[in-house]
């Protein structure tokens, strides 16, 4: 039986899970794949790691170059994350004709194009199932399972931390801060949670999904990104009263020759397929011309689900080695450059608008008047009686409107003397339907 | 660019969809796969087909042997269904070292083992993504995406017709017959719907999933199969009152070294992930040691979703041809024969029991007494007052009980003079949870 020699860089949470899976379940993997996988080197800054993982001391190194430069190693697993030194290590590994398996979404989102081309040039693979949605095999699904389709829509809850926080805010009427603190206590949020809650982690993943589904490379600066940190419990409650939930969504949609890519908290009808994805769970809805709508649901992070994805990539390399074919055709390379990126101002949505107004007769008429002049028509209004406060919320759900019009209208409205705070505007997503 | 020559046998609904996809979207497929796919021969009994599909007349043949014996054809797509002549044609194609792509679940469920071994021996592939859950790439997912996992549970709604009928019965208080008639009107049920509603179609699919997920070949006779044809509107309503929905479930579960495989209408708590899978949609829940629970949801039948799966298999062959590797290692071949099939009598579940009794004092005490003597404890009871009818339903939801005990108790109860009809017993499935 062939043996694939693997080196692992980075033995944090996910790395430990991968090491344990390869060491403990090597047998079952070999039986399924027809080729053995041997972990021959393991790099971590901390010597304790090898004790903790009970692995032979000889495998351990503190220097990652001992892995990327080892001529016997055929596959390098990079799990240190971040841009550098990960990028330099992966680059060197690819140049030395080693396959690379990574979970590094930030690196792929920012430098994927360059690294994929490098792999291609050197006849090796750069695989990344673990970079999006943890254990859900969405990369393989888009790249192979749905290869016959023209995808037109991807809607993803791809950041478990944000979804956990909004779920807690909704179910237990918590404010953002305490919900975040709780996520941190449970280990669902990093000590520095900014990338998760500000939408950038989701944007990294969206960039990767967009490349796969639409063959279009997008930069982070091409993506409209709003985090969940400004969602207030009040907005969740008003949304619920209108029959909606607020979910952290990554959205990529193709219409004709243009593509919109955006990440923001989004109102979904409670009947929407994604509305019931709770807690740290991830889910990705894909709509294609043949399949209609499909949904993939599971744990998007955590040691074992992510290890499942990393090991699946390694298994694929082992399997292809056993059959003598090492390079996968560059499915994702079909760059439809004709796909124009649609400017955010052009998108259309129904909007949830929360105005903070002085409770005075005629205010609603003023607001409605400005909306009307910008071609925005009102679907529902909620204004609750409040006697104590002089500032009251007025919430409006619009019919479909253009982002440009909404922005212009809100600029005008926020200048009114009766408006006390910046108006909150959230977009909605229509029920997923087959067409 | 390499060209893969494909012959298609059977141009019904799915076959036409495959032909159209290959003819119309050959270009996008070639770009994604790095290898072209050319449909060079097409077999159908009816000459009209080629007119309808607007394909060159020279491609058409009425004789399927002209496809399996054509030395220029590398891949045979079999879409005629049924055991014969499909089996003979596939056998001949494999013997002539042609890859085969099929959607034929009945054939694979009954003769898969033999055909897979034949393919293996001749160094070719037998692919079957379309055989289970239409456009959902569940076969590839189990075989590759989740390869690192030990799966312990599969719960699937894999027959769209049954799910559509039960959904209509629940949402519109229809009886089974009119709901079936409606499914037929909408083209969701065959003129002879028996395989769908009696659970055998789901059992065929379960046999395939079981082979992939557990490496265990099971016969249809190993599977406990109950259809949905005896579910009454009344049962759906009582279940709803207890907080449950009734879904047509295919279940495979591993516990220690034993495996249970069964197909039957099942009560699911309305919070269960599968409870909201409505209409013709399919969904498969998979629980594995690394991933925890995952759910895959989409259209399980129909021309275009099924064509999506068939073409994905063809694309995989084209891709592997381009990279020079033609045989996939037999992932599914890991037969863990040590997995004992658990007899149905040994399974445990909470049960929904509907007794048809004469409305007379002391009846409930009699029933409860017999249940108690068989170690079955009662969780809830519903007995509505009925003045007109002399026979009234008494519905009991039990705590977890053994199937053997339930059967014995019901045999005893059904002998009571106060019992007017055979007692209805349905099993429940506990909420999917991670452990």
Can you walk through the features of this model?
The structure is a homodimer of 435-residue chains. Chain A has three domains: 3-134 and 303-332, Rossmann fold, CATH 3.40.50.720; 139-299, Dihydrodipicolinate Reductase, domain 2, CATH 3.30.360; 345-429, ACT domain (Alpha-Beta Plaits, 2-Layer Sandwich). The mean pLDDT of chain A is 91. Chain A is α/β, with parallel strands linked by helices and 435 residues long. The first copy, chain A, has helices at 13-24, 26-33, 48-52, 65-68, 86-95, 105-121, 138-145, 160-172, 176-185, 194-197, 200-214, 233-241, 303-323, 363-373, 403-414; strands at 3-9, 36-43, 60-61, 75-78, 99-102, 126-127, 151-157, 224-225, 244-255, 258-269, 281-288, 292-299, 340-341, 348-349, 351-358, 378-383, 391-398, 401-402, 419-429. Chain A is 37% helix and 26% strand. Chain A contains 15 helices and 19 strands. In chain A, the strands form three sheets. In chain A, strands 7, 8, 9, 10, 11, 12, 13, 15, 16, 17 and 19 form an eleven-stranded mixed sheet that branches. In chain A, strands 3-2-1-4-5-6 form a six-stranded parallel sheet, sandwiched between helices. A two-stranded antiparallel sheet of chain A has the order 14-18. Chain A starts with a strand and ends in a 6-residue tail after the last strand. Chains A and B meet through helix 2, helix 7, strand 12 and helix 13 of A and helix 2, helix 7, strand 12 and helix 13 of B. Strand 12 of chain A pairs antiparallel with strand 12 of chain B, so a sheet runs across the interface.
């Amino acid at each position: 039986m062939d043996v694939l020699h693997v080196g692992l860089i980075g033995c944090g949470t996910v790395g430990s899970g991968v090491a344990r899976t390869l060491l403990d379940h090597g047998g079952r993997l070999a039986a399924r794949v027809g080729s053995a996988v041997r972990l021959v080197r393991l790099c971590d800054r901390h010597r304790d790691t090898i004790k903790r993982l009970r692995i032979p001391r000889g495998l351990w190194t503190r220097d990652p170059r001992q892995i990327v430069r080892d001529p016997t190693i055929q596959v390098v697993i990079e799990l240190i994350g971040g841009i550098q030194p990960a990028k330099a290590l992966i680059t060197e590994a690819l140049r030395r004709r080693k396959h690379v398996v990574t979970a590094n979404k930030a690196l792929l989102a920012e430098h994927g194009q360059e690294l994929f081309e490098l792999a291609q040039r050197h006849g090796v693979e750069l695989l990344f199932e673990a970079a999006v949605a943890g254990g859900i095999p969405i990369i393989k699904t888009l790249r192979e399972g749905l290869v016959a389709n023209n995808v037109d829509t991807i809607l993803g809850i791809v950041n478990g931390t944000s979804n956990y926080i909004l779920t807690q805010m909704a179910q237990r009427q918590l404010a953002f801060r305490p919900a975040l603190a709780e996520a941190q206590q449970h280990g669902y949020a990093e000590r520095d949670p900014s990338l998760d809650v500000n939408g950038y982690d989701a944007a990294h993943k969206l960039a990767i999904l967009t490349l796969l589904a639409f063959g279009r490379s997008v930069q982070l600066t091409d993506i409209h990104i709003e985090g969940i940190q400004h969602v207030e419990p009040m907005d969740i409650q008003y949304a619920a009263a209108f029959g909606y939930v607020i979910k952290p969504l990554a959205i990529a949609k193709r219409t004709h020759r243009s593509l919109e890519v955006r990440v923001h908290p989004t109102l979904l009808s409670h009947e929407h397929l994604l509305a019931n994805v709770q807690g740290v769970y991830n889910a990705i809805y894909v709509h294609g011309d043949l399949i209609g709508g499909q949904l993939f649901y599971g744990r998007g992070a955590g040691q074992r689900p992510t290890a499942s994805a990393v090991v699946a990539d390694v298994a694929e390399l082992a399997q292809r080695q056993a059959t003598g074919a090492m390079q996968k055709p560059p499915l994702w390379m079909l760059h439809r450059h004709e796909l124009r990126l649609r400017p955010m101002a052009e998108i259309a949505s129904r909007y949830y608008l929360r105005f903070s107004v002085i409770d005075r007769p005629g205010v609603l008429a003023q607001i409605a008047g400005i909306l009307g002049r910008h071609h925005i028509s009102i679907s529902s209004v909620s204004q609750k009686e409040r006697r104590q406060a002089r500032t009251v919320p007025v919430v409006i759900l619009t019919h479909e409107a253009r982002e440009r019009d909404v922005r212009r209208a809100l600029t005008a409205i926020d200048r009114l003397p009766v408006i006390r705070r910046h108006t909150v505007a959230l977009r909605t997503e229509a029920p997923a339907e087959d067409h």
